[in-house]
């Protein structure tokens, strides 16, 4: 959740609404941030995350899921387990790791967990350049590099890739 409203679930719900879609939400972390940076990240307890997912998927259901910032391995594993339990159609993963301000939003060990647990479940992965570099270990300097890294990610996860510049 982004208290500034420019990113996170607040921005996602505004986008869904503008596209005529009904969006629900599961909050996994509360951030204190604005255009200047992130001053705090407060994790939501795992049981609360599970309860939110269960409440939505056992009642309202979903045709698609869009996943954003998951700050820890435990949160990634919990979300993945819940999505395996309930059918949910397409899974879009935006592997948010760093805020626009440059502030880190994910624990170091969570990147490996995301790569092995969550990304293989995705229908579409939407990393930005920095996130794609972290996922592949390859520096991106130009559009040709972007295409090469997108191809590597596509082959690695057998899914669609939208690499954001």
From TrEMBL:
GO MF term set: hydroxymethylpyrimidine kinase activity; phosphomethylpyrimidine kinase activity
PANTHER family: HYDROXYMETHYLPYRIMIDINE_PHOSPHOMETHYLPYRIMIDINE KINASE THI20-RELATED, PHOSPHOMETHYLPYRIMIDINE KINASE
Native species: Cyprideis torosa
CDD domains associated with the record: HMPP_kinase
Pfam family, one: Phos_pyr_kin
Domain of life where this protein originates: Eukaryota
GO CC, any one term: cytosol
Protein's recorded name: Uncharacterized protein
Listed GO biological process terms: thiamine biosynthetic process
């Amino acid at each position: 959740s982004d208290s500034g409203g420019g990113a996170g679930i607040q921005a996602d719900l505004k986008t869904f609404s503008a596209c005529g879609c009904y969006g629900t939400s599961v909050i996994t972390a509360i951030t204190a941030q604005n255009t200047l940076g992130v001053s705090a990240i407060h994790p939501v307890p795992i049981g609360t995350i599970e309860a939110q997912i269960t409440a939505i998927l056992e009642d309202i259901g979903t045709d698609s899921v869009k996943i954003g910032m998951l700050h820890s391995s435990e949160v990634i594993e919990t979300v993945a387990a819940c999505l395996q339990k309930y059918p949910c159609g397409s899974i879009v993963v935006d592997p948010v790791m760093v805020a626009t301000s440059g502030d880190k939003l994910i624990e170091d060990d969570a990147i490996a967990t995301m790569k092995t647990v969550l990304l293989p479940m995705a229908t579409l992965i939407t990393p930005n350049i920095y996130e794609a570099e972290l996922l592949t270990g390859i520096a991106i300097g130009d559009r040709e590099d972007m295409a090469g890294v997108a191809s590597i990610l596509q082959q690695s996860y057998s899914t669609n890739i939208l690499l954001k510049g």
